[in-house]
Amino acid sequence: MNAQMGKRTVKLKSVRDAVAQIAPGSEIAIGGSYNRRHPMALVHELIRQQKGGLVLKGWNNGIDYDLLIAAGLVREAHSSYVGMANLGLAKNFRRACETGGIRYVDHTETTAQERFLAASKGLTFALSKVPLHTDLMRQAEYQAEIRCPFTGERYAALEAWTPDYALIHASRADRYGNIQFDAVRMMENEPDIFIAKSAKKLIVTVEEIVDTTVVMESKFQTLLPGFLVDSVCLAPQGAHPNSCDARYDFDLAHGAYYQGCCTTDEGSRAYIREFILDTPDFEGYLQKVARQKEGKPYGCQ
Amino acid sequence: MNYTMEELLAAALAHTIADGEVGFTGLATGKAAAAYNTNIPLLGMGLAKRTHAPNLTVLLCGWSHNPDLSQLKAMPECEFANELLNLPCEAQMQDYPGTWAYKAGDIDFAFGTGVQVDREGNLNCTCIGDPAHPKVQLVGPIFLPEHFAVFGREYIMMPHHERRNFVGRVDHISGVGYPGGTEGRRRLGLPGGGPKYIFTPRCIFAFDGAGSLYVKSIHPGVTPQELEENTGFDLGDLSGVPATAEPTAEELRILREEVDPNGILRL
């Protein structure tokens, strides 16, 4: 027999190539929470490639949503929180909601999580008692109410979320897409893991690429094994200006600068032009941020 | 006796906590919200723990059990600030959302804040105006619906007590109080206890067994008239309402020397 020698697929791609696959109008789930570990290199690249008409799904979001909304790429967004943590409200998000620029749907942390979790388990809907009688129930997504067949208790039934793509930022991976998270971390990465598993396609950025032997020596840190992953991209500091657990803290100074720019739509656009559209890639953005810290002024303030 | 508003409320809070309970607080951001939603709860729980409730579990941010705050020189900027990684605690839970976010009984009490509260104890932290076309969009419900639906009792912590905060009907029910009293709440099928107290800079409200709001005490120096002028709904007869008990010298000593030796919880 003439056995055909197969070759294992290398899933390592550039951020540009990974994002290029995403069709405009896609449903995109974004990992991370609050000001922690949002996949910003991918978010910037969505803006650079002007992927419009997006539907955003997340459970707790910040500058990731705010930037995509400011860039005019979002038609609908879902979360329990869109804010800038200690830096205040997310200004572009707020303006878009108040002027009707996007359709925004409020969730609670667990109702959003449950919708991903249901899809990650192959279920078609999620259950929750939490939103009963809140004004979340006035939204179209919350119209299905069902009873427990055993106890008769009331629940809100929510359709499972199966986004076209999930975008996640993790610690490290090998080129086959075995995704690892550092052992020392702020708290569990559970939501990122089930968000990843809910989606049709998964793109993960990591702080470093390591050899598969390194992965095998630290097998307990592989929380997303390679077969689940479609693309893995190297993006050091890829969550900036958000924190990435023990690797780096949030960049308060740059976050404050961003907030200052975003006081007006013009300022937000100038920020996006300067730090995203006029930079070739995320590394270029990080270099600009570093140069700015050395005292070289930038654009919009 | 010299004491601050934070100390007055922390002592009053401590008196409502029973031994063996589990109390949850997040790290709120913004000066006023942080004072009411994080600092006063941590002071009050710390005082209770050092007096009548040694078995109280303080659950910070949902994942740090009984943290040793005396190690901190300043309060962290927000929930994922890196100094929290190194904060000594008895358990740094590795599950989130974890079962306690759903299971009634795991959390005995928690603290929540917002921009509007009404007589039924409904709390709004989502938006001002019609939710479909908000005049002001805030950050969103976050985890507040869980507090009100699942946890044992909620302390509503309001840093401002003006007519615009205490309204006839909130613009967005983000946390559910007692629509139709405790019986109405029971019919909704919410497993948790709902709001029990509202702490403000002017008074402490409580909900009675029927789910009706009443003024439990008025802070020293605040007149009933001032309270009525700054509340957007009828408070009923205030003539018999006592003054909020001032902290004792011993309570103040414990708060200042033991609970918060570095002064990081004081404004």
Molecular structure report:
The complex is a heterodimer of chains A (301) and B (267). With 301 residues, chain A is α/β, with parallel strands linked by helices. Chain A has two domains: 15-109 and 165-282, Glutaconate Coenzyme A-transferase, CATH 3.40.1080; 125-159, no CATH class. Helices cover 31% and strands 20% of the residues of chain A. In chain A, helix 3 (63-70) crosses helix 4 (91-99) and helix 5 crosses helix 6 (190-198). The longest helix of chain A is centred in the last third of the chain and has 13 residues, at 265-277. The radius of gyration of chain A is 20 Å and the shape is globular. Helices cover 24% and strands 18% of the residues of chain B. In chain B, strand 2 (57-60) and strand 3 form a beta hairpin. In chain B, helix 2 (31-50) crosses helix 6. Chain B starts with a helix and ends in an 8-residue tail after the last helix. Chains A and B meet through helix 4 and helix 5 of A and strand 9 and helix 3 of B.
Present the secondary structure layout.
The complex is a heterodimer of chains A (301) and B (267).
Chain A: H1 15-20, E1 27-30, H2 40-48, E2 54-57, H3 63-70, E3 74-79, H4 91-99, E4 103-106, H5 109-120, E5 125-128, E6 144-147, E7 154-159, E8 165-173, E9 179-180, H6 190-198, E10 201-209, H7 212-217, E11 222-224, E12 231-234, H8 252-261, H9 265-277, H10 282-293
Parallel strand pairs in A: 1-2, 1-8, 2-3, 3-4, 8-10, 10-12
Antiparallel strand pairs in A: 5-7, 6-7, 8-9, 9-11
Chain B: H1 5-15, E1 22-25, H2 31-50, E2 57-60, E3 64-65, E4 91-92, E5 109-112, E6 116-118, E7 123-124, E8 127-128, E9 136-137, H3 144-150, E10 153-157, E11 166-167, H4 181-188, E12 195-199, E13 203-207, E14 213-218, H5 224-229, H6 249-259
Parallel strand pairs in B: 1-2, 1-5, 5-10, 6-11, 10-12
Antiparallel strand pairs in B: 2-3, 3-4, 6-7, 8-9, 12-13, 13-14
Helix pairs in contact in B: 1-2, 2-6
